[in-house]
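Re: the request from the purification team.
They wanted to know what the chain is likely to look like in 3D before they choose a buffer screen. I agreed to run a prediction and write the result into the notebook, where they can find it.
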Amino acid sequence: MIRTLKTVFTHKTHEGTTERLLQYAFSYFGLYVITGYLAKYFAKTLAMGGNTYTVYNTIGGLLICNLVVIIWGWYKFKSTDRVNFLGMNMPREFFYIIPSGICTAVIIPTTTLMYVLPISVMVAMIIMRASVIIISRIIDTIQIKQGVLNKIVYWEENVGVVFALIAVSIKFIYVKPGDFDFLHNVAAMTILGSYLTAYSIRIYIMNYYKNTRKKDAIYDTKGFFAVEQIASTLALITAGAILFYSVDLGTADPKTFGFQFKDCLVNTPALWKEGIMSGLPFGAAAFFSVFLFMFKGRTATFAGLVNRVTSLVAGTVATLVVWWLIAGQKPPAMEDWFGLAAIFIAIYFMGKAERKRACELAKEHEIEPEKGSEVICDTTDGPGAAKA
């Protein structure tokens, strides 16, 4: 373990290794903690919260993502499968990566709208976190039946799903009777349905790209992210412009998202620059979120678990940081600590699954183990078990 962590924090790692996975997870964790802290800091200390903060934070996130993919040339998607379309010679993968980007453009605003629905914030968070875990597991089942995924989902991964869902759903015992009234609200159910549908399509597409790569094919996750990001940005700009010009500040309800969206852009807040800067860690976290979802050689179940579990632990740590650094804030509640305990149990089983998968991939020469940390299969724990 010590040798692995030393490699994680001091070496450049190979694609698909456990060490690379941990590098992405730690990076996502750190950026998520910063993002969570800044949201509270702006709201509680700088009095810039709600949709105003969300709008400028999102602008900053989109800026950093697009600058990176353009300056570093990630948009030059690498593909060996090209096709002529409308007079252009383009990668065939664009036919599904661009729709994935449009789904991302749906996920971003619906995530915000979920928090302003006639629904408790706690219920909204439970739905969003649990849905990704469940959707990822369903995607594996579908793609195995389709023959797209030729790997099995280890029993340890399924146990990890159970404990992760327990960690997420513990807060259900604090749900009040009126918290589920949104089920009878057409607008609320439309937004929720759009969020779940877009996420399902996006996760399916990510894993379709990952699972249809031949051993000698190029696996360009940076290019995937770039094309998806550019497509989602263009879709968001288009949707934002339509919303902006369709809202009349003189007659619109100040409580609606449309009014608040246009109002914060027309009546620019004093801290708009700082709000945009706050989006930098938020945007940077998006890189590692996608890289975890698309991590080479792993099932959607495992990748979705790593992504959500990392964010759940980061959320608890962010709450602690806020409590320590911002006066008057509450520490994590008792149910948060119980949830964290369930998460660590999930992580234990995820670790066992990862050792098996690392062994499997190394034996099939799909990954190159890190120097000094050769993967050694351990047959005492069943087929495919491994030690690092």
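For the purification team: Confidence is low (pLDDT under 50) at residues 379-388.
Please add any questions underneath this entry.
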